[in-house]
């Protein structure tokens, strides 16, 4: 991973972490429980500029698909990994040349 990719991955991991915090606040009545979390995350990430970070045009449905896929894969391939970093690395590898 290049230095530029590492910088983007670090910024994206921070954005994912903040999104998690924001989601927990939005769903405080259910203690953050939301079976459709990926829909909320996708909208929030788009509003926060994930497209610019990844230099990509993403539909909300694209991002939902990516988030759900990453969630399934991390649970199978890297249980216990810091999810924000794992997702960020995966997204950067997919979108940045």
Which terms would index this structure?
97 residues; mainly alpha; 5 helices; 73% helix
Fold topology:
Blueprint (H helix, E strand, L loop, with lengths): L2 H24 L10 H11 L2 H5 L5 H18 L5 H13 L2
Describe this structure in words.
With 97 residues, this protein is mainly alpha-helical. It has one domain (3-95). It is built from 5 helices and no strands. The chain has helices at 3-26, 37-47, 50-54, 60-77, 83-95. The radius of gyration is 13 Å and the shape is globular. The model has no long low-confidence stretch (mean pLDDT 94).
Rounded radius of gyration (Å): 13 Å
Q: Share of helix among residues? A: over 70%
Overall domain count? 1
Oligomeric state of this protein: single chain
Query: How many strands appear in the DSSP assignment?
Result: 0
Averaged pLDDT = 94
Percentage of residues in strands: under 5%
Count every helix, treating DSSP H or I runs of 4 or more residues as helices: 5
Unreliable runs, pLDDT <50, ≥5 residues?
none
Shape: globular
Termini Cα gap: 10 Å
The sequence of SSEs as H and E is: HHHHH
SS-derived structural category: mainly alpha
Q: What's the main sheet like?
A: none
In short:
73% of the residues lie in helices and 0% in strands. With 97 residues, it is an all-alpha fold.
